[in-house]
Write a structure and sequence with these properties.
Elements lengths: L22 H10 L13 H12 L4 E2 L1 H4 L10 H10 L7 H14 L3 E10 L9 E12 L8 E3 L11 E2 L4 E4 L5 E8 L19 E8 L9 E8 L6 H13 L4 H4 L2 E7 L2 H7 L15 E7 L2 E6 L2 E7 L3 H12 L22
Antiparallel strand pairs: 1-10, 2-3, 2-9, 3-4, 4-5, 6-7, 7-8, 8-9, 10-11, 11-12, 12-13
GO molecular function, one term: acetyltransferase activity
InterPro entries: Arylamine_N-AcTrfase (IPR001447), Arylamine_NAT_domain_sf (IPR053710), Papain-like_cys_pep_sf (IPR038765)
Organism: Mycena pura
Length: about 350
């Protein structure tokens, strides 16, 4: 019996399709993410896909500042706008639609076979039954191995999510940013689904994937905390779908993005930080494919640095001017003074008591 582990439904293949980006734009993107190899020798493979994903995560922040600090309160997710903001002008990053959109078109230009899908974000914390939003998360499906339809999930658009491609396999587990973090993929059924495999079937039809994050407890005797990050299906989604989803997110007047100026940037840990997470590892033996990642985060009025299980508060902010300074210092995002007025009256505004 042929195994279906790692395959799309019905064993589907992804065909190679053209990219909107030129080879010159790809070269500038590779330089921006600090890829040190030669473009001519960069061929599709699981290893090269993993390297490009990690370099992208360590370069472009997950952020929503244009939603709050521009008069239009918009996030430009057009491929032209993404290239200009993230590569040409180095003005900042984007959120999932933009980060995965740029990566999607860049790897297609490099010859990867890929398509774009969508997921539903879970708004609940660890240990709580998930409550999913609409399709407001972009994910990528990639078949990086020549002559093979083995499929991997790639997500460079979630600052706290996957840091490497993950085989599309029920029960699969991969390491996250460091050994204290893992991600698990499960194929499951929705209790509220109207679909079944046959009339009055006693078994629910499994068609929805769920990605969980597992974080080690500081108390070694306790199990890790587990949280469903999002669910997704294997259907192909297109630019029109993301434009509609983007309008939906921008129009919300409640929830995470409305209530917070968010920014998350991954970074490669220093040798000392690597040793603090795992004293048995020789940092000199690590490469960009294997070196642990830490994260800088801004949510609301606080900037934090995460290294393994260690969390450090770097900055507490009380005014928009202080937050703009933190965005510039920690994330390389400059907000003009006049644009600070655009956040007035919005849920994310820092209001002094």
């Amino acid at each position: 019996m042929t195994s279906t582990r790692g395959l799309l439904r019905d064993g589907l293949w992804i065909k190679q399709t053209p990219s909107v980006y030129s080879q010159e734009q790809v070269s500038r993107w590779l330089a921006k993410i600090n890829y040190l190899g030669d473009l001519a020798s960069l061929k599709p493979s699981l290893e090269s896909l993993s390297l490009l994903a990690r370099l992208s995560l360590a370069t472009f922040p997950f952020e929503n500042t244009p939603m709050h600090y521009t008069a239009a309160h918009s996030m430009d997710i057009t491929y032209e706008g993404l290239y200009e903001r993230m590569v040409a002008s180095s003005a900042g990053g984007s959120y999932c639609f933009g980060l995965n959109g740029l990566f999607f078109q860049m790897i297609k230009a490099l010859g990867f076979r890929a398509y774009s899908g969508a997921g539903r974000i879970n708004e609940q914390g660890p240990g709580v039954e998930p409550v999913f939003h609409a399709f407001v998360h972009r994910v990528l499906f990639v078949q990086p191995i020549a002559g093979s339809n083995v499929t991997y999930i790639v997500d460079t658009g979630d600052g706290t999510g996957l840091v490497r491609p993950m085989l599309l396999a029920d029960g699969g587990i991969v390491e996250g940013a460091s050994p204290t973090e893992q991600h698990r993929l499960t194929l499951t059924a929705r209790a509220d689904s109207s679909l079944e495999s046959s009339p009055n079937s006693p078994t629910a039809q499994k068609f929805e994937w769920r990605l969980e994050s597992l974080h080690a407890a500081k108390d070694a005797g306790r199990p890790p905390t587990a949280r469903v990050m999002y669910s997704f299906i294997e259907d192909e989604f297109f630019d029109e779908d993301y434009r509609a989803s983007n309008y939906h997110v921008l129009g919300l007047t409640e929830g995470l993005f409305w209530e917070n100026v968010m920014c998350i940037r991954s970074f490669f840990m220093s040798d000392d930080e690597v040793r603090s997470v795992d004293p048995s590892v020789d940092p000199a033996a690590l490469t960009p494919l294997t070196r642990y990642l830490g994260r800088l985060t801004m949510a609301g009025s606080t900037v934090r640095r995460y290294v393994g299980m260690q969390t450090t508060v770097l900055r507490e902010m009380k005014t928009e001017e202080e937050r703009a300074e933190a965005l510039r210092e920690f994330f390389g995002i400059s907000i003009p003074q006049e644009d600070l007025e655009s956040i007035r009256g919005r849920g994310a505004e820092l209001v002094q008591s």
